[in-house]
Amino acid sequence: MNEDRPLGKFTQSKLDRCISCGYCLPACPTYQLTGEEQSSPRGRITLMRALQDGRLPFADAGAQEQASFCLGCRACEPVCPAGVEYGVLLEEWRDITWRGRKRPLIIKALFQMVNAPWRVNLMSALSPIARNRRASTDVHLALGCFERRLFPKVSKAVARLAPEVSIDRSQGCCGALHAHNGDLEGGNELAKQLGEKLPGTILSTAGGCAAHLSSVLGKDRVQEFSQWWEQSLSPIMKNGKPIRVGLQDSCHLRNGMGVFKEPRKILQQLGEYVEVPNAQGCCGAAGSYSLLRSRDSKRVIAPKVAAIKALELDFLVSVNPGCTRQLKSALRKARMKTKVVHIAELIALAP
Ligand code: SF4
Ligand code: SF4
Fold it and tell me: Do the beta carbons of residue 145 and residue 120 sit within 8 Å?
């Protein structure tokens, strides 16, 4: 246990950092939705302080609602002049309030799916993902639990593009799901186990997993795919013209790891790159959020869908499986022809 963090409390020094300046308010999607202080980063930190001091019980319904309503997108971090680590505070908040029986049922079910190694192995066995291989370099692909099940083509694209990368289908969960949903200890332990299983550099195709692994194992051990990719590329043509392509940032990749120029640099080579308005803003997927708070998740993505529609893109690129799922579903419902793909899948289409 961290000395600065008594059992069942926040890390005091992290709470103390906030100077209540309010610079984070315009960046916060839930504040944009409600216009209410309590749904803003500053408002939530005020609530955390009241919980810490005992002026409010942790069971307070209003406080619990705000811990749940927050997307965990960390858009409040890069704009904060005081360097408040809001993402860590939110993880601590959920660790305190969602512990044990209080954890939402959907989260319990998701934990069950990935906690047992045999269930994760079953996901690998049931999905046509890349095959096991031992390559010459010390770079290992992290397969991601849900990415390997929902989007098996991503690991296959990486396997084809990067023969120097090793692939081990028996690897387990990285623990990001746990850390973001009230089990910090479990999340850290799983990240360490994955770090031992995949020595050297861990290459991740999921922004959320990359950011979590990097926070536990250190930046030197983890590279997200667009950060790692160095080869120059030729444009992909459609009807005699370069494709029109846009990007949706991954919140944790951008706000947690500071990676956002790298995917754009790749896409600028692959076609006519079009910046999606508010690409840095959360798409509403936010890990388990789209399952837990489906209505709010749809409210967050609605303006984004309208903006993407106006751009008439051939491809919308994602760098995180949760975002891919959310965008695919929203664009399909809006009857749009724009294809949502992972950046590795698009690179694999280049001549
Ligand atoms: S979190 Fe940062 S930006 Fe927001 S009110 Fe506190 S100090 Fe200001
Ligand atoms: S993590 Fe996102 S939703 Fe939560 S307070 Fe920060 S900006 Fe707002």
Answer: yes
Task: Tokens for 270, please give them.
Answer: 């692959």
End-to-end CA distance of the chain: 53
324-327: long-range pairs with CB below 8 Å, 24+: 324/150, 324/151, 325/150, 325/285, 325/290, 326/283, 326/284, 326/285, 326/290, 326/297, 326/301, 327/248, 327/283, 327/285, 327/301
23 CB within 6 A, ligand 1: yes
Tell me which residues of the chain have a pLDDT lower than 70. Answer: 1-3, 100-101
C-alpha 142/C-alpha 144 separation (Å) is 6
Q: What local confidence, expressed as pLDDT, does residue 295 receive?
A: 96
Roughly what angle, to the nearest 10 degrees, separates helices 184-197 and 86-97?
A: 120
- Name every protein residue with a CB atom under 6 angstroms from any ligand 2 atom: 27-30, 41, 44, 70-76, 86
Residues in the chain: 351
Give me the domains of the chain, ranges plus CATH numbers: 12-97 (1.10.1060.10), 105-228 (no CATH), 237-347 (3.40.50)
